[in-house]
Amino acid sequence: MGKFNNRHQHWNEFQWEEEIRRDERRISGYFRELAGCLDLPDEEELIFGQLSSQPDLVPLAENPESLRDCFNSGDDEDEEGFEHNSPRRTVASSTVDELDMLCSEWNILTSGVLPGQIRYMALGCSCAFGKLLARTADFLEPGENSSAALIVSLGKRALRDLNETVELLADIAAVYPDFRERCSWLISRLGEIRERLISHLGTVN
């Protein structure tokens, strides 16, 4: 999500939930337009022009940054900060690292040749893992100015994304016996992470 100003500190959980949904629609809209503009001259200008014509995808008045900033903000800062950060040692950071490892395990498992139906299911699960990883990192390692209402909303979203990922793994295991054992192991590990997310959510005030 984009940068926040002082007005966001007064938002409640439900306002944050609506903004998160809006943010997801922006991301979905961006990639939908990207498919038709890929490799064209000025592709980003074309994409942002299309998105700007859809009022629901334009940032709210309380957030004065441009639509472009919603997708570009923070990348350089993250890359710069990564070089100087000390090794992660907190429980929250370890959980993010573990989830990152599970995402990698799944991508390695599904990198080979798969039957048509399973290939698309596996790709969808990879996307779900990526979304879960990003959401969990936002929840467990929030920015300094993140309000309690935002963190609670992100935590509930992370749990919802985790449940969705588990359901996808279970569906794949049910129709593709070769993955059944590994899917069961991944579901078990995600269950452990779920308990940590619930426990962390209970500490937010």
Radius of gyration over all CA atoms, rounded: 19 Å
- Total strands: the figure is 0
Give the fraction of residues assigned to helices. over 70%
**Shape annotation:** flat
Percent of residues in beta strands: under 5%
**Main beta-sheet strand count, sense and barrel state:** none
- Arithmetic mean pLDDT: 79
What can be said about this structure in brief?
With 205 residues, the protein is mainly α. The chain has helices at 13-37, 43-52, 67-72, 75-84, 91-109, 116-140, 148-175, 180-201. The chain has eight helices and no strands.
Short key terms for the protein model shown above:
single chain, 205 residues, 8 helices
Care to describe what's here?
This protein has 205 residues and is mostly helical. Helix content is 71%, strand content 0%. It has helices spanning 13-37, 43-52, 67-72, 75-84, 91-109, 116-140, 148-175, 180-201.
List the helices and strands and how they pair.
Blueprint (H helix, E strand, L loop, with lengths): L12 H25 L5 H10 L14 H6 L2 H10 L6 H19 L6 H25 L7 H28 L4 H22 L4
Helix pairs in contact: 1-2, 1-7, 5-6, 5-8, 6-7, 7-8
